[in-house]
Every structure is written in C-alpha cells, then in structure tokens.
Amino acid sequence: LCFKVVLQSGYMFDDMWSSVDLGIAINNDTTLGRMVLGDINRWVTSYGRILIFSFYSDFVLNYLPLVIYKSFIVGAMFLNGLVLGGVIRELTDSKKLTYLTVIIFPAVISLRASYYTGVYAFHGLVQVCFLMVLLAVYSYIRYRKTGKVRFQVISCIFWFISLGTYEVAYVLCFCFIIALICIDGWDYVKNHFWKSVKTGLPQIIIEIAWIIANVVARMLASGDYDGATPNMSLGNIVSTFFKQCSGSLGLGASIKDFHLLSFAEWIEFIKTNVGLLEILSYLFLFILLMLALMYVKDEKFNNVCSMTTMGILLIVMPSVLISVSVKYQK
Questions:
Q1: Is there a contact between 176 and 206 (Cβ–Cβ < 8 Å)?
Q2: 320: exposed, middle or buried (Cβ count in 10 Å: 0-12, 13-18, 19+)
Q3: Containing H/E element for 15?
C-alpha cells in the first residue's frame, strides 16, 4: 500500500541514463562488464571516488525488468526495517519496541510528490548501503553475544561492501560504537577501554583503510565532483543541514514539497497514487497492529537512551556529511 507509487514509477534521474548502458556497450562493440570497469576507473581517476560496489546497478537496470528493479528497491527498504528491528531487539531485549519499529518504518519513508528521492531511483544506493551497515552491526552484535568468529567475519564483509558502495557509510560507524556501549555498559567501556574497542578492531582497520584510499584518490584525481566537494559557508551548511534533517522523515519531505510544487500538484499526486481505499486500509491495519502491540509483554527494556541516541544520529550524521557538499547546497 505504501509503495505502490514506487512500483508504478518508471526510470528516473540517474536510473534513466544507466538503463541504456547495455545498448551503448553494444553500439561500441564492447560488453557491459568492460564498460562498467571503465566507469569505475574514470570515477577513481577523475573524481577520486572509490565506489566499486555501487556499479551493481548497471547490471540490475540493464538485465532485469523495470518492475523487478522497483521491487528490489521496495524490498531493500522493508529489509532495512526488519534488520533495524533485529538490531533493536538484540540491544534492548524488547519485543514491543522491535515490533513498533517494523510497523512504523514504512510510514516515515519520504514518498515525495516531486519524486526527487532515492525511494524512486538513484540506483537504490541509499537502501543497499544502509542495509549493508545494519547487517554489519547486527552480525557484530551476534559475534559479541555468541563469541562465534564467523559472525565477526560476516560483519567485516558487510562493512567493507557498505564503505565501497556510498560515502554516507563512513559516518554510520557510530552504530558500532553504540552497540559496543549497549553490550559492555558505559562504565565497563570507560574502565576497560582497549579491551572493549579491540572487539571492533577489524571494522576500525577496514574503515581507516577505506579513508586512506579515498584521500589518496582525491589527491591524485584530475577533476572535481561537486557532490564530493566541500563548501564551508556556514549559512549554506546550516540551511542544507536542516533541509536534510526534515527530509529524513516522511512528513518533513511532504512539507518540503510545498516549496517546490503548488498545493494543487501535491494533492493531485495523492489522488493519483494513493486512493482513499488504500489510505483507509493502511490506517485500519496500522491501528490494528498498534492495538495488538499493547498486549505484547516485555520482560526487559534496556538501553532506551542509547537507542534514542542512535535514532537521532541516524538523522543528524548523514545530514552533517551532505550539508557541506556544494551539490546539495544548491
């Protein structure tokens, strides 16, 4: 119900250009794989961006039908909600908070009437990157609780992939920090800092290695990419920061659309894509699930402050990173 508009949408923005890459490759007597390798090399040498795992989208967009690609985007968003619920369950021991997260997650997705959001397009990079981060954190938590090294290995693999997919992953390292504090306790971390931190040493090494690689690539790059070029104008940073924070919530993104579209256009978007029956059905299902949630009993409810902090940082930290970008300040 929430994402019908996504499934019915066509190729948009970057997806529109990437969807014809296979045809371009054929016209130039090459393969899509070779063309992608050339694009990776061009992004590294020209712009200093090492996003080797983000180019999966070229194969998805060119070899899968549109409806499968859109289903992939929607599916990734649902998986984000489920894995986030799993992380919360592991750190709080609260069934109620876990179920609440999964229930309300679709309601805060930014289904903007202007369509300019990763919910519809942009290769699904945000969804995939966030999913990789959440899986890395969840696997780390399982490693700490069970002591099984395979979970640490899985965590490192997902973390490595996330850092090579989209730069926003770099600032999401705080999820590991909060997980560590929840597991060990703040007092233990203060008194046994190195003993706690070294449990996440492989993840730290991976991130430092990626940072060094990106810094070197930026220094050697022959050109600039405005999306990765900083502008330290305080006024622009503050304005962009608040815009990004508001866009992190479905309601905030809807309000922002009023500045881009007329009220009539926004209402037409609702009428065209979300019928009255669907709205009432979703509200009925939402209320029913909330009432059922009232009967779920929790034996424990730990680390509420840490989970609240994580939620705030998930909004704030990516917004801080994006707010210094020349491209997004425009």
A1: no
A2: middle
A3: helix 14-18
